Amino acid sequence: MKKILKISEGGQGPLDMVLTQLDIAAQKLKIDPDIHEKLKTPQRILIVSVPIRMDSGKVKVFTGYRVQHSMERGPCKGGIRYHPQVDLNEITALAMLMTWKCAVVNIPYGGAKGGVVCDPSQMSIYEIERLTRRYASEISIIIGPDKDIPAPDVNTNPQIMGWILDTYSMNLGHSVPSVVTGKPICLGGSKGRLEATARGVFFVTEQTCAYKGMSLSSSSVAIQGFGNVGSHSARIIHEHGGKVVAVSDVSGAIHNPEGIDIPKLLAHISQNKALKDFAGGRVISNKQLLECNCDILIPAALEGQITEENAPRIKAKIIVEAANAPTTPAGDKILNERGIFVVPDILANAGGVTVSYFEWVQSIQEYFWSEEEVNNKLRAIMTQAFTEVIALMEQYHVDMRLAAMMLGVGRVAEAGKYRGLWP
Ligand code: GLU
């Protein structure tokens, strides 16, 4: 498995990074070395070929992955991403992060992740539908409501979850809404799921501000990425009085030290206009956004954005990792030395999977909750996890990332101990 995954000692890739974090947490917790060894590799890797007919009439063959890291604490859970940079190492790292994330918020799942190497911005909606249905069919041998439940991730959305639900259900001959989460509400999706990751980011940002003696309403915030998580985070933070001074997407970034008018920006984007063409801010580069003057920086795009190269110039006092693995280990070290407080991904962005859990419970019971109930339960879970991570951080005098890892890895290891080894 290690050979297939090309793990390099001290490497800065996402998988090297999560393995280093696991080693440090396991050492600190003095975890049984046998259990530690088992947690280093995913339980299953499925690589599938996804041939589809393009609109031109020609067949193109894509590559897809589904990696199930652990089912120690329950069925596997994790999103599916469509991106040209998807590879097996990245998906494995993200699956592993899902295991710890679900354990940090104490929901009964193990971790998984899936992805297809493709550029959806260059594909028609019909091509994306065919790609989704063929990929769903290929991975249907390992997914299912009590096996592994996919959800949206980078470049996937409720419509794509609807197609997965339909493909899986058509093959079985009956409707199985609990096979995916993040699906449209009319198909059994949960109220509040679409913005759940962002709402969770908002809750932990608010709590971090309180912990650090700051107030979110008098803080300036820069957000990298304006997809589902970034745009909803900007909206919710703005609604609660936070001043969003910089935002970016793939087209570029804009900056306004007086605060960007987020409702106007959202209206601009909804007309299919590029973010960088918004008149309410000065155009800057993505690089400048990360280094701009702000109190709170929220990376909400891809992994590996904060590195040893730019970490020395970051001005934020707090970083809330809305993306998965946005900071490299070398970058993290510099942030720590500079006293920048980092709220790690496995806590900061766990709101998404938490409401996915609520959605799964509702789908199985066919009994649906109000948005208020969803948001209140989400707040309770995020607050509990935040408090537990801070307590470990103070008890062991470690940074917040290691404390969150210790909470997550510790819970998985405890489950592993009681389950024992088969056969
Ligand atoms: N893709 C999201 C994440 O990375 C959500 C996963 C889920 O809801 O299963 O946490």
Task: Note down, in words, how this protein is organized.
There is one protein chain. With 423 residues, the chain is an alpha/beta fold. The chain has helices at residues 2-5, 14-29, 33-39, 88-104, 125-139, 158-172, 196-211, 228-239, 262-270, 286-290, 329-337, 345-348, 351-365, 371-396, 400-419; strands at 44-53, 59-68, 76-83, 110-117, 148-152, 220-224, 243-249, 252-255, 282-284, 296-299, 318-320, 341-343. The strands form 2 sheets. It has a 7-stranded mixed beta sheet with strand order 9-8-7-6-10-11-12, with helices on both faces. A 5-stranded mixed beta sheet has the order 1-2-4-3-5. It is globular, with a radius of gyration of 20 Å. 51% of the residues are buried. The structure holds glutamic acid (GLU).
Largest sheet: 7 strands, mixed
Can you identify the CATH class of the domain at 196-348? Alpha Beta
Q: Low-confidence stretches at least 5 residues in length (pLDDT < 50)?
A: none
Hetero compounds: glutamic acid
> In what range is the share of β-strand residues?
15-25%
Strands of the widest sheet, in order across it, are 9-8-7-6-10-11-12
Alpha-carbon distance between the two ends: 20 Å
Helix content: 40-55%
Total number of strands: 12
User: Structural class from helices and strands?
Assistant: alpha/beta
Order of helices and strands: HHHEEEHEHEHHEHEEHEHEEHEHHHH
Global outline: globular
Number of helices: 15
CATH arch. level architecture of the domain at 196-348: 3-Layer(aba) Sandwich
Instruction: Write the CATH homologous superfamily of the domain at 196-348.
Output: NAD(P)-binding Rossmann-like Domain
